[in-house]
Amino acid sequence: MAVENRIVKVQKRNRALVKFDAERILRAIWRAADSIGGFEQDRLPGINEPIFQAWGTDERIAEFLAEAVVVCLNSDPHHLIANFPPTIEMIQDEVLHTLRSYGFQNTADAYACYRWGRHWLREGAITPEKFVGNGFPAARMESILETNRRRGCDTVAGLNELTRSGRLGPVIEASLADYEASLDQAARKVLERLNRGDALRMIWITGPSSSGKTTTTVKLTQRLEREGLRFLMLNLDDYFWSLVEHPTDWINDRNYETPEAMDIQLLNQHLRALLAGETIEKPVYSFKEGRRIASKRIRLERGQVLLLDCLHGLYPPITEGIAPAAQFRLFIENQNMLWEGDGSSRRLTRFTDVRLMRRMLRDARHRNHSPLLTLLHWHYVRSGELFSIIPLSGLADHVVNGGFPFEIPAMKPLLCGTGGYFPRPEDLQPYRSFLDARIRYERLQHLLDQVEGLSREQIATCDLIPGDAVIREFIGGSTIQIPHNE
Questions:
Q1: Tens digit of pLDDT for each residue in 305-327?
Q2: Residue 484 pLDDT > 70, yes or no?
Q3: For a Cys staple, 403 with which of 160, 336, 350, 379, CB 3.0–4.6 Å?
Q4: Angle at 184 between CA 467 and CA 312, to 5 degrees
Q5: pTM above 0.85?
Q6: Of 234, 320, 313, nearest to 281 (Cα)?
Q7: What is the CA radius of gyration of the chain?
Q8: Element spanning 205, H or E
């Protein structure tokens, strides 16, 4: 299908003007879809099904989407002036807008992660070896699926059979043992660096929202404290800007998920000062009042290690001027996945959806924040992590998988049924035009409908799921002190 195009030029990042080439848009969209297994991964009845019916093949769907981008670019009259054409960044923004507007959410995520990874590559923040592409390292994903296959839970059907038959216990034990072994390995890496004389003064525990950073921080520090290390923990929430500097959007929501929500300049100054042995006046932030209400004098003592649990621990401006040798960076992500149904659909569950369910429970149980608002807010979460978290994960000194096959059955009794926290369809009705939230809601509902849940009695005690398991941070019953849940 031909579309009218009157854009002649494009402004490159160095401000040079070059000929506009719509084929480049087509190829970029095609590569993003191909990296996740094709557009079929985004096929959604009732949302974008007509596009699949009309265009059929991945190649033709990519052509349709690329032409839609061209139409959107031409709708801005400024782009039609020869010396004021769209920039590369404007075109990339429009690609994302088009993909998300038609419900191609997973393709958009892959495109965004690749885009920002290339950005950090150009900035010199990462090297080609640290580039993570669409954020789903194929070898690691295949290894996790193979491990689940050996344990009989690489599909939802297999997981359900283990749950129904009361044979989930060994899977819980084995997957938690893998997690603990990974933490042992991280602790050994820290100690090896110290033993060889590295001036290691700072440990970051970083990863996307609800990946299990808090439990992991506690467990890692316990291991290192047994080896004689002493820590000073810095709460980076104290560096948020005042509430008046966070404008609200169309649903009165604020974006706290971007690194720019924090006073990066002050944080960087304080980190460098602490490592230099200076005393700082750390701000004290009140979420109740939405502003800094005081300050506290702190100093990193000789022999202490600065400990930081932060979403954006890999974000380069935060640690600008701090030598990599002074830092150990642990990255945690919920990387468990399994095939939907019996696996014949060849569609994988999304571990970002599992993190969304974790956050729904945490927000509802500990922060007086409704799961509906968590759902409506999640697009900010994904935007932030696709910009400054996942594309930089290659910088980590150690990666921990904080995802487990048994956690969806463990969360289901709290989300579904009488008194469950999962939003009702009528709760979402006023926001049906908010396609991001609608897609996530329907995908979560489909997943929860498929999965056989544990009973509330089973998760109420620590007989099946230990009290120090990561999932306890979200379903309750943790035997580890969780500061964020107090």
A1: 999 999 999 999 999 999 999 99
A2: no
A3: 336
A4: 80
A5: yes
A6: 234
A7: 23
A8: strand 202-206
